[in-house]
Design a protein that fits this description.
Elements: H1 10-16, E1 30-35, H2 56-64, E2 69-74, H3 76-79, H4 89-104, E3 108-113, E4 118-119, E5 122-123, H5 131-145, E6 151-154, H6 164-180, E7 187-189, H7 209-212, E8 223-228, H8 245-262, E9 266-270, H9 277-292, E10 297-305, H10 328-341
Parallel strand pairs: 1-2, 1-10, 2-3, 3-6, 6-7, 7-8, 8-9, 9-10
Antiparallel strand pairs: 4-5
Helix pairs in contact: 5-6, 8-9
């Protein structure tokens, strides 16, 4: 049975989900988790065999911990098996049922096509996947959720191997398509180079995000930038080290300064660490750095949990039969600071 909608986000939603609220939202109001599974599998895959949506039990678990946002990864190809065609009705129903379950528990949902700026391994902006196809996909999807301002549109997970200017063109085309169907939902816009905070100002072969991504254009001015920040030696999230903690902290500070100059907000869509002492302290330090720059951060979602994550995955916070994993106390501490501070009343 789905519990009745609880007034978890009364102040938060008034602050962050209205058109004007984006400019006045309090520090790190959104605190939650990526619930992976619908992004699993090769190609189209088979539901229940190659990929799965998060269960109500999993959603309940993280809602009970005080988390108020779910970033929901899924594959573009699952939802739109043929480019430029209608969305698959059965897959759309699965997506909507998951969104409804999270919303019934007072949680914001971020829709996340987890495709790295590609469709069938062909990059957006190529002959096979023109920018118009990406925009068309978002127009169709936005039309399905335009009446729920508690659903955010994360344009794309970690664009990479795509020029920043081409990615900006694609992002702006998608935003135009979203607004054309009347959807006023908040849009989260990443950069290229995996939208890493540490590379935002770097001069890379794909261009400099900091120089290019200020060119995002939204007719209703209701968007924020999405960043990812891992702390291991190569910023990939792999391995057991957090050797790049200092670089990660600097990246948060540098990106915060860039956001202030732009007059915009940011959201940390992914951060995850192994549950060793050094990395748990590093995670705590990054979350506190976000809080100290809360004037420009909407919040964060930890990577990751989900019903099918293997127990051996170091960053995984899906609960086991023995209980919660080691990262949870750090995340719950941050949630407690939000509640104690009163900036986002539950």
């Amino acid at each position: 049975m789905v519990p009745p909608l609880r007034p978890v986000l009364s102040t938060l939603l008034a602050a962050t989900l209205s058109l004007t609220g984006l400019k006045t939202a309090q520090a790190a109001c959104l605190q939650g988790v990526n619930l992976a599974g619908a992004d699993f599998g090769q190609g189209r895959g088979v539901y229940g065999k190659d990929y799965i949506y998060p269960s109500v039990k999993t959603i309940d678990h993280f809602a009970a911990k005080g988390m108020n946002v779910i970033r929901l990864p899924f594959k573009w190809e699952h939802l739109q098996p043929k480019l430029d065609a209608a969305l698959d009705p059965l897959e759309l129903r699965r997506l909507k049922e998951t969104v409804a379950a999270a919303r019934a528990r007072g949680m914001v949902v971020i829709l996340d096509p987890h495709n790295y700026a590609a469709y069938d391994e062909e990059k957006i902006g190529t002959t096979s996947v023109p920018v118009s196809a990406f925009a068309g996909f978002w127009g169709r999807l936005a039309a399905e959720f335009q009446d729920d301002r508690h659903v955010y549109f994360g344009l794309m997970n970690e664009p990479n191997r795509i020029d920043a200017r081409l990615w900006l063109e694609a992002a702006n085309a998608a935003i135009t398509a979203i607004r054309a169907v009347g959807a006023k939902n908040l849009i989260l816009v990443p950069g290229t180079n995996h939208t890493g905070g540490q590379s935002w100002h770097e001069n890379t072969p794909n261009g400099v995000n900091a120089d290019v991504m200020g060119g995002v254009r939204d007719p209703v001015d209701n968007f924020a930038y999405e960043f990812h920040q891992y702390l291991n030696h190569d910023f990939s999230g792999g391995g057991s080290d957090c050797d790049s903690e200092a670089a990660g902290l600097k990246a948060i500070s540098d990106v915060s300064g860039w956001l202030r100059k732009q007059g915009k907000k940011g959201f940390l869509g992914e951060i995850g660490v192994p549950a060793n002492k050094t990395c748990l302290q590093a995670l705590s330090n990054v979350l506190r750095r976000l809080e100290r720059n809360g004037d420009v951060w909407l919040g964060w979602s930890y990577w990751a949990a989900g019903d099918w994550w293997p127990e051996s995955e170091a960053l995984n916070i899906q609960p086991t039969a023995k209980g919660d994993r080691g990262q949870l106390p750090v995340l719950i501490d941050a949630i407690g600071r939000r509640k104690k501070g009163g900036s986002c009343k539950a």
